[in-house]
Amino acid sequence: MRLKILPIITGGALFIGALALQACGDSSGYAYGPGGYGPGYASSYGYAPAYVEPAPVYAGPVYGGPVYAGDGDYDEAHVWRDRGWWVNNRRDWVMAHHQAWLNHERAEGQAQATYRNQVQEDRAAYLRHQQENQAAARINRQDARGAYREHLQEDRGAYREHLQEDRAAARMHESAVDTAQVRAQRQARRRAEAAQDRR
Between 20 and 30 A from 65 (CA), which of 89, 126, 128, 159? Predict the structure, then answer.
């Protein structure tokens, strides 16, 4: 892995060094550029080389129309104006020379209208969905309250039944205890009477 990365690092360092040397040479006054030698060259060597004036560069017309992003044209002052400027400021000229720009504008207007309609439909659907959710939440709350009431009534009914059963069991237990006491008393009396008879 190191053997593969080392040539890349070395090459990058050499490239950065070359760029740094070029920048130093450009800032020292000895640079060679368009129009001849820099001014520092003549003073350091004692003579001035022949200065050659660079040839002027004129921008000629580009065949096939100017290369610009989007539609447009030059106005009377040879200033480039885009399609929107022509449509907003010189609509009569656009109607006379570029009907397609107006058709494009209509298509854009239709697309914007379609987008606005879609946004309105989305908002309406969102509002409907929100209302449906709120209605469903209300129904769920009502169902929960009804279920809670039913459960509370069932619990109260079960408690009453359990209380009545406990009372009935207590009564039965009391009557059984009373019966047992009465029997015990009777047996005690009989025994006492039998003991007296024996005497």
Answer: 89
